[in-house]
Design goal:
about 375 residues, alpha+beta, Creatine Amidinohydrolase, Chain A, domain 1, Creatine Amidinohydrolase, four-stranded mixed sheet, 24 strands, about 25% strand
């Protein structure tokens, strides 16, 4: 297939730290804490690295060429640039390749884009997913996600064991003579994950009223007889892929109303999973859960200045980012074979409690496969 004139004169340009930018890591398979230059020019993948990282980049990066930043910087000075910056270095490479248009990610720094324009380039920004192929996971990527998920399940199981060992005193959980706190349980989870070479941030162990705020990470003593939401989403330090799982439990005895809340969410979640398949509409799946909750009498809206009911999306893609395309939500996406998505409906009612249950699902050619292998048990005995 012949290339269009625009394609022939367009280069992809990144200036970012691959430790933070998943698109850049996806392109290079190289981890660096500091920004570096990456270009794709006429099918060739090129990194421009400082002297500190040259040898490591040459041996580890999945690119075609690694160029010396200091060498190109010297050539920029030879062209009259007194104090070359990153864009001046890029300009040397693009000028030699006779490039006029550059394609950059949506988070490309504005100052760098402006400087490229000053140098005469047409700058085109592309929103995520920058690399569309990232959305469809390979068999190897699915294995990485499953490995992170197994570590997550082990850590959550260990945390649930802490709750089982706890005694109930004055409507709180106590362990080893002191109140069992969210902080202690989160630390237990995070240490277990580190032992499995996974790193967790913002782990949620939130009980009672705190659980009614979906992103409250939880603090202080954990309540007895009330729901406690666990939401754990670590990243593998080895593969860089995430896992994501939520479970809601009670240590003690749940009230009939709280039991009904849990069962309603569990039934809705499991029904939604049956609808995951190639070609399914994420918006319709989300809408079905909303309608099911409404029919069960669980209304959503603002009460006393606080949202209650079901007021977040049903699911999102998981991969090198914890939240990525596609979406199962009110905006939605069409699902396709190879997508890995969460299914995580929840209901939140201050005074009663909250429930959220989340599994990760792989879309297959003939339906789906649940990548999560962890029980959904509400009352811990």
């Amino acid at each position: 297939m012949s290339r269009s004139p625009l394609q022939a004169h367009k280069a992809t340009v990144f200036i970012a730290a691959s430790e933070l930018d998943s698109n850049l890591y996806y392109a290079t398979k190289f981890i660096a804490p500091d920004p570096f230059i990456y270009l794709e020019i006429k099918g060739e993948r090129i990194m421009v690295m400082n002297d500190l990282e040259m040898d490591r980049a040459k041996s580890q990066a999945a690119v075609d060429r690694v160029l010396s930043y200091s060498e190109i910087e010297r050539r920029a000075r030879d062209h009259g640039v007194a104090a070359p910056g990153s864009v001046d270095v890029i300009h040397v490479v693009l000028r030699e390749a006779k490039i006029k248009h550059v394609l950059v990610p949506a988070n490309f720094p504005f100052s760098h884009a402006s400087r490229l324009q000053e140098l005469g380039y047409q700058v085109h920004a592309k929103p995520d997913p920058f690399y569309e192929q990232r959305v469809v996971k390979t068999a190897e990527e699915v294995r990485h996600i499953e490995a992170a998920q197994r570590a997550t399940e082990e850590a959550v199981a260990a945390a649930h064991d802490l709750l089982r060992r706890a005694s109930i005193e004055r409507e709180q959980l106590w362990l080893d003579g002191t109140p069992l706190t969210s902080e202690r349980v989160k630390k237990h989870i995070n240490v277990k994950l580190m032992e499995r070479d996974c790193v967790a941030q913002h782990t949620i162990v939130a009980g009672g009223e705190q659980a009614c705020d979906p992103h409250n990470e939880g603090s202080g003593p954990l309540p007895a007889h009330r729901s406690i939401i666990f939401d754990v989403f670590p990243r593998s330090a080895a593969s860089r892929y995430f896992a994501d799982m939520s479970r809601t439990v009670v240590r003690g005895t749940a009230s009939p109303d709280l039991m009904r809340l849990y069962q309603t969410v569990k039934d809705a979640q499991e029904e939604a999973i049956t609808k995951i398949k190639d070609g399914a509409d994420g918006m319709k799946i989300h809408r079905g859960i909303c309608e099911r909750f409404e029919k069960a009498g669980y209304k959503t809206g603002l009460v006393n200045g606080r949202m209650q009911g079901y007021f977040h999306g049903t699911g999102h893609g998981v991969g090198l980012d914890i939240h990525e395309a596609p979406r199962i939500s009110r905006t939605g996406s069409l699902l396709q074979e190879g997508h890995v998505v969460t299914v995580e409906p929840g209901l939140y009612y201050p005074g009663l409690g909250a429930v959220r249950i989340e599994d990760m699902i792989l879309v297959t050619s003939d339906g789906c496969r649940n990548l999560t292998d962890f029980p959904k048990r509400f009352e811990l005995d």
